[in-house]
Amino acid sequence: METLSPTSIRPFDPLVVRADFPILHQQVNGKPLVYFDNAATAQKPKSVIQALTHYYETENANIHRGAHYLAAKATQDYEDTREAVRQFLNAASTDEIIFTRGVTEAVNLVAQTYGRQNLQAGDEVLISTMEHHSNIVPWQMLCEEKGVTLRIIPITDQGELEMDAFAKVLTERTKFVSIVHVSNALGTINPVKEIIAAAHRVGAVVFVDGAQAAVHLSPDVQALDADFYAFSAHKVYGPTGIGALYGKRRWLEAMPPYHGGGEMIKEVTFTKTTYNELPFKFEAGTPNIGDTIALKAAFDYLAQWDKQTIAAYETDLLQYATQALESIDGLQIIGTAKHKISVISFVVDGAHHSDIGTLLDNEGIAVRTGHHCTQPLMQRLGISGTTRASFALYNTRDEIDTFVKALHKTLKMLR
Ligand code: C6P
Predict the structure, then answer these.
(1) Which domains does the chain possess?
(2) What pLDDT, on a 0 to 100 scale, did the predictor assign at position 271?
(3) Which end of the chain is flanked by fewer CB atoms within 10 Å, N or C?
(4) 283/64 Cα distance (integer angstroms)
(5) Cβ neighbours around 202 below 10 Å, total
(6) At what angle do helices 289-302 and 46-58 cross, to 10 degrees?
(7) pLDDT, tens digit, for every residue of 276-322?
(8) Which of 331, 373, 378, 383 is catalytic?
(9) pLDDT above 70 coverage of the chain, percent
(10) Which residues line ligand 1 (CB under 6 A)?
């Protein structure tokens, strides 16, 4: 049998890809599952599931501590994933890669360490209207504690950042900008490189929420010149409960630790404790070892194809679905930015999004409905929520046809 090394490129065929994802081959409510909720979490290929099982069956041990074979093996594999994340983000060093539970924990970490240490009353933190709650609430908590002001970059009706307004709200008082790379509710790709450069000109530090971008774009933290960048493994075909925060070495070194405990210390006495080196200073306690190791299997899985081929395929799905939805009477696509990833949100006159979601589920189709953890965005758009279909590399035009047919049936029942 031919063995596939992680770096060999294989021709991209979505039907062959589907065979790698066991979960896709089932009936839901008596219909073949159509999984269009990939922005919430992507499904996992067999190799990721097997990596997790393999870890627990053959090498489960605590890391960085044990003197025995299993501990050494688990430590090596855990640290190999850190190197894989470094390559994925093109960071300069593995010291700049901190494992977190995901983007949410990464934002909280930065707000509670860098933010607490460096921001004070009179300073301003800048975020945008289209942020996920996880990039709003941690900053609100910090602002309340420190007397810092939260400022908002507005968006256009199409769901793009108003860059002229950004230029005005960015001032010498702006000490931190925290911005989403790709909107989960709209699909908009934001010009983060431009935003980072402008923020740096006024001396502000920038965090980029890469939750949706990581799987579709190829974020290069050095090319972007991001100070911080975070993603969650479960959206890049990896496991839940693990993700990573990139931070420039000079910030991470100067920041205080986030959590105290084992692993993050150099020496503990009752009078004084000194902290471990990077990246361990930010990884207190026994980490999520198995899921971290399985994340590398997700990167190896994706490395089988040229990234641009997958991006072009997903763009084709987006365009195909957009065309089909645009022809439905009374349907409005929410988020029509020029640069989008494969996410379509929409509202329909006379049909509530939660009813649409339930009826589509009856047809075996999984979409997300509601505010998508972006309530301020929904308020700005004057809606309570949307129906959102989001596509991944294993989705097909045939599935979109099934979805559109089911949507017609659904709307007939509701209107
Ligand atoms: N969005 C969605 O259905 P966590 O939960 O930490 O892995 O990621 C949070 C998060 C942060 N930023 C953006 C842009 C996101 O899309 C998400 C997660 C999911 O849209 C679940 S709410």
Answers:
(1) 8-37+306-414 (3.90.1150.10), 51-302 (3.40.640.10)
(2) 97
(3) N
(4) 12
(5) 14
(6) 150
(7) 999 999 999 999 999 999 999 999 999 999 999 999 999 999 999 99
(8) 373
(9) 98
(10) 39-40, 102-104, 132, 134-135, 180, 184, 209, 211-212, 232, 368, 372-373
